[in-house]
Batch of 4 targets.
Target 1
Amino acid sequence: MTLAIRHGLPRDQRRAAAELYWQAFGGKLGRVLGPDRAALTYLERVMRQDHVFVALEDGHLVGLAGFKTAEGSFVGGTLEDLRAVYGRAGAVWRGVLLRLLGRDADRAPFLMDGVCVASHAQGRGIGSRLVEAICAEARRRGYAEVRLDVIDTNWRAKALYERLGFAAAGEDRIGPLRHIYGFHSAITMVRRITAGPGAEKVPTAGVA
């Protein structure tokens, strides 16, 4: 089998990407974006194909890693997108909760926005390769660091990021939102990188 890491989401893999993303993050987002059918419809609608790296094995999607810049994010969406899937009333409260969860991430200059690897493909270094692809993209764009947020209950992911050169730089507690999202805080982790030759220099913001 041949594994390839590539920038961009092929159009014919959008549904598979939505399913993989939901399998990874549905436990956290289920009360906001659920039920499953609606969540998959929403994700497939809003995924931005140029803000993601994918792992393809013989043409099948086995992993992905999204990122966020000032230009947009892999999984973003607007109130109009929410309204199209959940209706007017459903869009309002979902929009508020999503905005509250993402308020700190909006300050990040280059944010890694979720790494997912299919269960049957885990343990083979695919997640590490996707993270390195994200860091290489940040370097190419002239950023000095890559930031990510990992929830306090996901110690396995935190250990992986530490092995890949990320260090904890802060922790944000989400207060009453913990009853909705199922975790208490998000740990901010940062990896410093060196911009490549000829890369466009992009100013960085402070880390919370």
Target 2
Amino acid sequence: MTWEPIDVATDQPYQVLVGAGVSKLLPQFLDGVERVAVIHPPGLAPLLPTITTGLDQQVTAIRVPEAEAGKTGEVLQRCWEALAEAGFTRSDAVLGLGGGATTDLAGFVAATWLRGVRYLALPTSLLAMVDAAVGGKTGINLSAGKNLVGAFHEPFTVLADLDFLTTLPDGELRSGMAEVLKCGFIADPAILDEFEEDPEDALRPASERQAKLIRRAVAVKAAVVATDLRERTSSGGDIGREALNYGHTLGHAIERQEHFLWRHGQAVAVGMVYAAELARRLDLIDGELVARHRRVLSLAGLPTTYPDGAWLSLRETMSLDKKTRGSNLRFVLLAALGVPTIVSGPPEGVLADAFLGLNEG
């Protein structure tokens, strides 16, 4: 069993352990804990005996709906009630076992139970390993939009066990790769080079190339959140954690438009192409970088277009984006490869034209 720790140097520092078999290290992170709640979707119930083997703690399994269906106020209430019934105190812990939606929910449960208890993340999808489980953002959805209710609550540790990826559906691997490639566009272009060298190998579950890409993507996120945990309002060229929202302004709107039936990475992929089209129209980047967005994301089997007729509905939803300040819609765009910037209040006509450009590339 080998693993490689990545330090997240926030006010409450922790490590992300990446490698095959790291879930077996779970017991050493539960010292002093009497009870642990394992929040998980139904499909992962068979993993519970393996995950909890060797634990001295009383285990409470809390089953929640799959994917975004679990990130609701009703499910959150059920989790609180389960903790109350089991007698959880501030010295106990919550473990999120599952994909990004489950770790978002579990982290929020931990953040809000008795105003905060120990939280551990055991992500089982590529998306969760490189994004949702790292960085301390937790939350649930409302009918008005995604992640509108949440809290910053740093995990005690994140155990990214690459063994889980060997049974992950192909669509989930491709969805997670969108967030990996995002890190390449905003901070580490070597990620794009590594992926383009052999996309098939990069998408092969738990291949050495995939493991390398995961570590690089986690390192990007760790570096960003270490300097800006709570996503302050960006100023000048220092845009902090907002850079991680590249592609998410339109992406989140698409997720809502599709009733959360699209995978997160699919929506973000379209959102990144839209951001590139918008940046080109604002003379920030050239057509070659726009084309690279389309090429790389297509190689990953991700969508890069969206129906023209959806613009008005999507535009209305984007007004609720978390980056919006007052009436100004703010976008994370690229000034160059690896150089993100914030653009506030771009002209409406340019926004609409960039959307039409999704289907013209």
Target 3
Amino acid sequence: MKTFITTLSIILGVTFNISAQDFNDLDKSPLDVAYYPTKAAFRFFEKTPEKTKALEPVMKVYYSRPQKKGRKVFGELVPLDELWRTGANEAAEITFYKDVKIGGTTVKAGSYALAAFPTAKEWTLIINSVKDNWGVYVYDGNSNVAEVKSTPYKSKDTIEAFSIVMYEKSTGLVHLKMGWDDTIVEFPIEILD
């Protein structure tokens, strides 16, 4: 009987220990993905090979989406005149499935870190070759691949969660559009064939 109780105790202890593994809590700034074309992730639901091919991804951005929560964002929560990770947590990451041109510089297909340098009158979008970093704490400007500047404008509505979308502005020209709080900024990216 003693052996049975000892064995049962060990089994229950191991079972409890396995089921009690710690999982992280839900992140306050969840990770999200933006595609161009927007419905690229759903391309295999299309009925024809032509429609599927038309939705092959050209660009994809992984980024965390912090919330406004009643705070003033740019100039307080996100300081102006300082490098920003473009979201929260890990540095945002952009993948190009084709070569692109950003700010006059050709960027080869591949994955890169994405950062921004916001000022009151102008923002700079920065593509950097060093990725998989927490924030921009180890940022090295010598690893910049391309930069492009743009003028921010005011949103007519408050944007609660930091958001990124990409859309075709004209043939071969995609705009990466970021918005949060009352600020929107768009950066042109030329698709090279």
Target 4
Amino acid sequence: MEQQEEKQQENFRVTLKSILGGDILAHNFLRRQANLIILIVILTILYIDNRYESQREIIEIDRLKKELVDTKYDALTISSELTERSRQSRIEEYVATEEGKMPLQTATTPPYLIKEGD
């Protein structure tokens, strides 16, 4: 009886009917290699998961790089506006337009430094 099963196992051909019918799972080769097949399936699942995770991280890095560039441009714009507004000519112009509210004038003499006696 066992010899007949072994001969059937040796003469077993992989066909679409044997795959769809599940007969291939009863084949002796697959039963011997079940642990290896399970290990390969687990490693394949881990590989796919790792790839998706790395793609997700690359997308996040790209998004953060774009956000950083936008923030740098915003900071540069604000800095240039501050520089423009704090120029002496702009301040003098502002004071001149607000003449009635602010009793300020531009100094006609340059500032001088008071030193302590040695």
